[in-house]
């Protein structure tokens, strides 16, 4: 190694990135998990805002579907609040039985099968992409409600700016993004409690005339369209307001970021979310009816309601403006759920080989950088496709979320049915999931029937494409895994002709440093290739491995320790095999989120210990390589080689052929 080699200067891109998203985090910091985890209040803000913010567009869509039968809003409001509590309680049960997160994807995979799991996961993933877009478009609608109509042409640019801003915030880390947006959440809660509370209380003296009006309108409809007609209107409005319930699954998906004890924190967060959403959404339906709210071009129903409630107050116009501004701002916070949970769904699916492995990786800020970037780009694409139409987005949004809801509830029904002998209270627990499944399927079927031609087909088409892509990716990974396993079986049977070598490694001898991951045919092939192509040159073999901390292992101190122990165990196998072939061998290991940076530093320290060294690593090669394979298999070997060459350390990449 060239001792005088200059230190690699940070590139302009790295300097800009550190300014925007902050300096790298220390993975070895003892209190890291405690600092990054969320208490129930912060989890309510970060994940519950998605559910609460849906009150800005869900009740509006349902109320508009009632047409002139506005008295039914009272029934829809009560049904909506009840449904929120039922689905929330069902997801609290999911949190108990699947405390490590993953939500609908993990539930469907483990309780039904992996094929249903990938459908649920893809539906959930597309849903989170839509979460970002619909939340931020609704934010634009709310804020532009107070601007002249001539400003509407700038709304799409404003929403695109918000998407980019949230991408940057989430690259900094979940807790930082949630904490910075907390004041917005608090203002929303205070202003909407005031608006809904005063709106209902101010009409208490008029309750008797209102009750008479309700009975009169209901009687008129019974005589003209009958009970079935009223039921049809109710069910249509109830289903088209399905956007109200989106976000209720966010807590069960994001359990990894909860503070210990995770289950207790998750269930408390779920209670906060359900109570706040049920009261807000149900209260808005009551207020729409009480204040005779009618749709108006360029204005949301909540903006009209705020004017009606605060119109007679001193500074009423300002209070109404703050209320709607907080609503628009909360929708920004609600979009956070897409950036928090969307990448986690990708990471869980990447661990199971449905997505490229790089989506399970963590950045130096311990955020799922690749997933955040994909969610941002997808949200921008959906914004352009729908031209910022909330109605079109909500249709797409509602269908996908209720696909996941329905599969999750069906999965839990199967779970309790299979475990009825071990759980004496299984009948009590299964009831809520049966009711939840019926409600979710009802909303899903009616929404698809009503809105299939108005945009419902596109969300089913997009989700089907993602499912198909997942199968292509997994099929490729399975073929590669099979090829490597065959290679491992063949190489593990190579007979040893030398006695077991117990000699210590000698720093003065020529040393081969092998970069390996786990104990597999990949590493064994590299070892035997060195012995074959460089006979009698290398006397020592040092195995180097960086245990990559990804979303699957970054859950707590115990998981990190298990990751390190597993890396040491695998390296000891390499050492034993090498000594069986007559060569002195040892290993060095570390943990980190960036394999390239971690391996480079680790190799540099080994080279100082063994100056006469050459670094070897392997790379999969295919007979007919294509861009698809390059996406699925990263260029880690070349990246490490470039870093080592800068430091003057000789490095060799050995090809490993896989016939697939």
UniProtKB/TrEMBL annotation:
The chain crosses the membrane at residues 69-91, 154-171, 183-204, 224-248, 269-291, 311-339, 366-388, 394-417, 429-449, 455-473. It comes from the Bacteria. InterPro entries: AA/rel_permease1, APC_K+_Transporter. It is found in: Membrane. GO terms for cellular component: membrane. Keywords: Membrane, Transmembrane, Transmembrane helix. This is APC family permease. It comes from Syntrophorhabdus aromaticivorans.
